[in-house]
Amino acid sequence: MIAGFGKRLAEAMAARGPLCVGIDPHPALLHAWNLAEDARGLERFALTAVEALAGEVAVLKPQSAFFEVHGSAGVAVLERVIAEAREAGALVLLDVKRGDIGSTMTAYAMAYLDEHSPLAADAITVSPYLGYGSLAPAIGIAEQTGRGVIVLARTSNPEGAELQRCLRDSGRSIGQSIVDSAAETNAGADPMGHVGVVAGATIRPGELDFSRLNGPILAPGLGAQGATVDDLRAVFGPALPQVLPATARDVLRHGPSVDGLRSAAHRVRDELAGLLL
Fold first, then answer.
1. 7, 26, 86, 97: the active-site residue
2. Is residue 277 domain-resident?
3. Where are the strands (E) in the chain, listed by range?
């Protein structure tokens, strides 16, 4: 069995810096790269991004929806992206945001976290809004296979606040209760547990307490959504060593040039290098 996800992520962040780049083959980006909005254009886009970035950054995050929209041909491209990115040394966080119950959640977990699946990534995003306990199959399979799950807690989209900032009877927000549940799962892990949370870099400073989490924090919102390195410091404070800032458009818009993509990723990575200074 491979080493636990928390350990592998910590090592990747130490070696390559704390940066996650999304591979989001949005139609507008395909057009900007002068590619057709079809499976062939998708393949050219995604594999160019892998060629440029998989040897440079800690984590690549393909957005599954943009592959699925092309049917079986798109899913076949996604399989290649996962395999080639991992072969080049990047960890792959597959952005699928799955959430269900019982045997259905188990099936999703087997599809994306079982070592024998062609879609197996190093970690996946999951939705806890059928209850954190509903994620047990994915959390368990991820632990068994050395993989991870990143749970939506306080997302960067403005609509998320309507639900995620609601208070429970305990007085904690829903977002905070998800962070706390992940912390309980990760208790005793070293250096980090295999359950992380999504917390946008655009949220209010002090809104969430990460002091007990002991797991990774995926922080979308850097760049195109307006968040800066200073925002990361303000929002996450002492939890910065666990933070994996995520960006996509700020890097991908520099394609289809491999050198352009690499240079853009290096620029963001260098900006983040001062986070802990």
1. 97
2. no
3. 20-23, 59-62, 91-98, 123-126, 148-154, 195-199, 217-219, 243-247
